[in-house]
Amino acid sequence: MKVKTILVSQPEPKVENSPYFDLIEKQKVKIDFRPFIHVEGVSGKDVRSQKVDLTKYSAVVLTSRNAVDHFFRIAEELRFKVPDTMKYFCQSEAVAYYLQKYVVYRKRKIYVGKRTFTELSPLIKKYKNEKFLLPSSDKLKPEVPMVLNELGVDWKQATFYKTVVSDLSDLRDVYYDILVFFSPSGIESLLHNFPDFKQNETRIAVFGNTTVKAATESGLRVDIQAPTPETPSMTMALEKYIKEANKK
Q1: Phi-psi region for residue 211, left (φ > 0), alpha (ψ -120 to 50) or beta?
Q2: What pLDDT does residue 107 have?
Q3: What pTM was estimated for this model as a whole?
């Protein structure tokens, strides 16, 4: 079965040089972008009900740009002036860079991991006497509390925002050759919106082991998978598959 249409369950890339746009041009396929999930902030009252007093923490652990936005949103809502002495532990450079939207970038107070949360742990360990707040979504990767508990630091997780299924009802009668997923929540959204979904000839592309697991446990057939040593990105995996499928 040839590939002509693809739906990517994420927002459209804002950068002009996105590899998705190269894929459209080179492989002559149509790619649509549509977030299957979105984030909604919880209220300051909800955060208080989790017994969180922002004045009690000297460090914040930030795993995503959403965590950055919602930490400062809640601080403002609760009229908490974030002190200049606050330390920020950011999971990646992208998160640290985004933090500049809210604070003056001072290297001595911003500590940056490489990519995974485990890679951030040596930096947290150096400052184990701090009191750490982890503002996160209601869907927290199990690696995060596991690492923090192993370090033996004083920390608290609080839900500052939630991952919510988007309404996709307008796609009910729209069909794509490939559906692309990046998280178990995306799979959950598909089946929530279309409980009678039949895969038939639709190819499913997934990124990451947890997404593969969610897809297969939901009875879906995974046709394209990334990352692999040969195709470390989703666009590379799609291109490889399309070349094979479309040459027949």
Answers
A1: alpha
A2: 58
A3: 0.80
